[in-house]
Amino acid sequence: MRLLKTEAIVLKNNLIGETDKIATLFTKSYGKLQAVAKGARRSKSRFVNAIRLFVVANYVIFEGQNYYYIDQWELIEAHKNIEKDLAKFSVASYIAETINKILEENQKSERLYLFLKHSLKAVDELQIDPLIFISSYNLKLVSLLGYMPQLDNCVVCGKRENLKYFSNSCGGAVCINCKNKCFDAKPLHEVTLKAIKYFLKGDYDKLQNIKVSRVIKEEVDKIITAYMKEHLEIEFKSKDFIDKLQNM
Ligand SMILES: [Zn+2]
Prior knowledge:
By secondary structure, the chain is α+β, with helices and mostly antiparallel strands. It folds into 2 domains: 3-79, CATH 2.40.50.140; 126-246, no CATH class. It has 7 helices and 8 strands, in the order βββββααααβββααα. The strands form 2 sheets. The protein has a 5-stranded mixed beta barrel. Helix 4 packs parallel to helix 6 (214-232) and helix 5 packs across helix 6 (214-232). The chain binds zinc ion. The site of zinc ion (ZN) has 7 residues, from loops. Involved in DNA repair and RecF pathway recombination. It holds the Pfam family RecO_N. Residues 1-78 form the DNA replication/recombination mediator RecO N-terminal domain. Belongs to the RecO family.
């Protein structure tokens, strides 16, 4: 029997059997795995909080024949504010879903783990605008996965002037002279480009006090969402809810 000791974040949980729950954990040392919390559906179980969504904890997990089982756990971060706030909860759900979909079973990435931990902490502690936060998160995520869009220079000729288009297939900003070289080049407002750069490079706490018009926010979101779809080839369900939240 193998014992795993690792820090991990709860991405998802489901019911299993009569009294148990199964959690999708992103572990720092062993990647993504499914772990059963025996008896977690009973209110007095010591595992009730162990598999709460977005919890960060140190776990001792043993490998059974068919499943991993949580044996012990110690809380590191509960993210209490996320639980209490619908907007924060939606953003955190989106973040957990993206990471869950990107990772294969047992796929390990300490960089992605730390990025997730940092992002959830920001959602929990900062005042956030859901759409701005998600755009910034998405840009940081695609960049971390190796698809950082080129924003300072034209992706075709490298010039820094007249970057008036954006192309998913070419991978970033395109100047007026090169727009025909990228079949999907779409017009890009100067302010939108500025916002995208800021969302990508600025840390989350820098997003708290910026003023961005709704039109620009939505344009940035549209561009990033399409860019992610093109490069990661995944679509995310919980994003729909965030879009609805904008209209509430
Ligand atoms: Zn160019």
